[in-house]
Amino acid sequence: MKTSLKLVAALVVIAGLGGSNAVAMQSKPQESVTYFYDDEAHTNLVGGVLLYCDGSHARWGSYTLYSEETYYGCW
């Protein structure tokens, strides 16, 4: 059961990375994306924040101390 849960979480992360970037880039450029996880090992994705170059943002889920940020910058 735990293995299948990890697989589902991994698929959600992969889908979220591809989908959020594609949608964000079509509508407006994004400055950064931060994903939040439930533990230090980044076992389960629990939330995220997209920051756009125009200063707006999109948030979902929970925030934790365990995060991973990718910075794209604004041009």
- The tally of domains stands at 1
Nearest-integer average pLDDT: 78
Structural class of the secondary structure composition? Answer: alpha+beta
- Helix-strand topology string: HEEEE
Q: What is the C-alpha radius of gyration, as a whole number of Å? A: 13 Å
Strand order of the largest sheet: 3-2-1-4
Distance between the termini: 45 Å
What is the assembly state of the chains in this entry?
Answer: single chain
Overall shape:
elongated
Largest sheet: 4 strands, antiparallel
What report would you give on this structure?
The chain is α+β, with helices and mostly antiparallel strands. It has one domain (2-71). 35% of the residues lie in helices and 36% in strands. The protein contains one helix and four strands; from the N terminus they run H-E-E-E-E. Strands 3-2-1-4 form a four-stranded antiparallel sheet, with helices on one face. It is elongated. The chain starts with a helix and ends with a strand. The model is unreliable at 1-5 and 19-26 (pLDDT under 50).
Topology:
Elements: H1 2-27, E1 30-37, E2 45-52, E3 57-61, E4 66-71
Antiparallel strand pairs: 1-2, 1-4, 2-3
Attribute tags:
1 helix, four-stranded antiparallel beta sheet, alpha+beta
Structure described in brief:
By secondary structure, the chain is of the alpha+beta class. The chain has one helix and four strands; from the N terminus they run H-E-E-E-E.
